[in-house]
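Why this split exists: single-chain examples teach little about how molecules sit against one another. For that reason, every record in the complexes split bundles all components of an assembly together and asks for one structure covering all of them. Below is a record exactly as it appears in the raw files.
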Amino acid sequence: MRPAPDRRRQLLDTAAEVFAAQGYDATTVRRIADAAGLLAGSLYYHFDSKESMLDEILSAFLDELLAGYDTVLAAGLGPRETIEALVTESFREIDRHRAAVAIFQKESRHLQDQPRFEYLADARHRFETAWLGTLERGVAAGDFRADLDVRLTYRFVRDTVWVAASWYRPGGRHSPEEIARQYLSMVLEGIASRTRT
Amino acid sequence: MRPAPDRRRQLLDTAAEVFAAQGYDATTVRRIADAAGLLAGSLYYHFDSKESMLDEILSAFLDELLAGYDTVLAAGLGPRETIEALVTESFREIDRHRAAVAIFQKESRHLQDQPRFEYLADARHRFETAWLGTLERGVAAGDFRADLDVRLTYRFVRDTVWVAASWYRPGGRHSPEEIARQYLSMVLEGIASRTRT
DNA sequence: TAACCTACCAAACACTTGTTAGGGAAGGAG
DNA sequence: CTCCTTCCCTAACAAGTGTTTGGTAGGTTA
């Protein structure tokens, strides 16, 4: 008998893949079992419910992401460098947790009403603090344009990064760092205040 | 007896609202009926199926949107003005069909495999032609930066516009035109090639 | 008045869903 | 060998799903 404690993670990975492709509600437990090569009932040896699979997928991703954000924020960089680091970190996370990111994008909005998934709203709030705070700091420091609505800018930056998960495929032409660089180039040249008026 | 030929559209509007909020698969026919103030079975007097409601919502929206795009493209504007017009038109469409846009965003990816919803893939292709063509034209004309990956730029512009549907609420602080102006300001200052190197 | 149409309800249908209970095969430990 | 744990299967369950059928209130037409 193999020990296989990573069997659990392996099942979660295939589940995440199916969830991301079909949507959580449209995905049946039997479909996951098919993709994993076992029968539907057998999944319940590893997990108590379909919902707890989703829970584990999302919280594992968010834990890692928020830890990465905290590291960036603790580095004490300037506003512009912080934004650059946040974007790069985000694309690395998309590279590693593409499926989880796609699920989060699609389902979090209506999941966060459920008590079990309250932490999704918390995560959103911590995103907002990180991004919005950095933007405001940058506006005050003169790094970013002051003539834009800050909240609109925040949503703009946040969305431009995260929607990439809907088309990004690991192993493609561009590395996460390369994509981050191009995105930053596009975003910053619009956000950074011109040195010459 | 009231004639009420718009009863159909009224039902479609509430259905679209529920679909957008909960997701298509997560939405039950009884939930729609509840919101509309009748019983589940009664919906089948107006529509043959739940799927055909979705079909009608999406195709009505796409018809109007693509017609708007065609008008813009037929105007014979320059690349930059075309992009501006496309973005503005898109935000107007988001303003009018917010629910349909949200549904399209969430569900189209996995719906377009079904034969019935092939037109979704067609629509995506026409989007790509409109946006990507304009961008390439602009690069050739010197309106947009040439040092960026065009496909990446296309996805960037496209996504930044459409994700706005996930947070936009009509009747808010900003009009569609105002949001379009701010978005364009952010996007273009990054895409437009600098007049001075 | 009688026939008719519109818009709905009440009740059921077949089917799929997530989930559970009991059992069994395969290897490791004693 | 025997016990035990791990991992899976078989078979079923109750609840909920989209959908259909027959009926009916009430206004319109003749």
